[in-house]
Amino acid sequence: MNSFRRGYSNWRRSKLWPCRSGTKGPQAEQSDLEKFFEARKEGHGIWKWKHYFDIYDRHFSRFRGREVHILEIGIYSGGSLEMWREYFGPKARIYGVDIEPACKAYEDGSIKVFIGDQADRGFWRQFKKDVPELDIVIDDGGHQSEQQIATFEELLPHLRAGGVYLCEDLHFAHNRFAAYIYGFASNLNASQRWERNFDNQDRRLVCTATAFQSAVRSVHLYPFVAVVEKRDTPIDEFLSPKRGTIWAPFGR
What we know:
By secondary structure, this protein is α/β, with parallel strands linked by helices. The protein has a domain at 46-190 and 216-231: 3-Layer(aba) Sandwich (Rossmann fold). Helices cover 29% and strands 23% of the residues. The protein is built from eight helices and ten strands. Strands 3-2-1-4-5-9-8 form a seven-stranded mixed sheet, sandwiched between helices. Strands 6-7-10 form a three-stranded antiparallel sheet, with no helix packed on it. The radius of gyration is 22 Å and the shape is globular.
């Protein structure tokens, strides 16, 4: 049994967890996004898992009120485009992509809609010529791993520094796009050149950052959701300084 299957199986059977399915914890205050969703009794439809709203708010709230460029892939009934416009404010520029030509009807002064297949890299190459670099990408499109991987590889380089890439509806434990993201995230742990400086007051370890680590700040995993955040500014190295004067004679 490989390590993934061993870890999955052991934790799945674990009796250490204090809660079980169906157990509800304390109710958190609703974000503005969830309030918008709950208030939608009529009009263009919005269909989201409720726990997504806290994830959105955690990663997107810092962009509110700014001139921000947002892409949502998978428009469906158009209601979420209206939700993003309300949440981010009048300075936001919102783009939608869908394979269904009828979705062009959701376009207006602050929303631009493109019709195309997200698995088609040629479509994305043309899209990137027509649209400035993005701050946020939300992939709620076809949900097939081939589509998600092609979209991610084409659009992550088109994401500005400090940008956020969110892919949702990653269902099932052996989801292929989730596995792809696990491999992607493992690059955060790469180590290149190390330098030790323990001969003076400035005692530290220095590890040179890879190009990947310099560009990608973090990868977050939630139920059915993966989020990648890019760094605001590149970094050159990681530091591990030592402080204090009394050290045990064993260990490091």
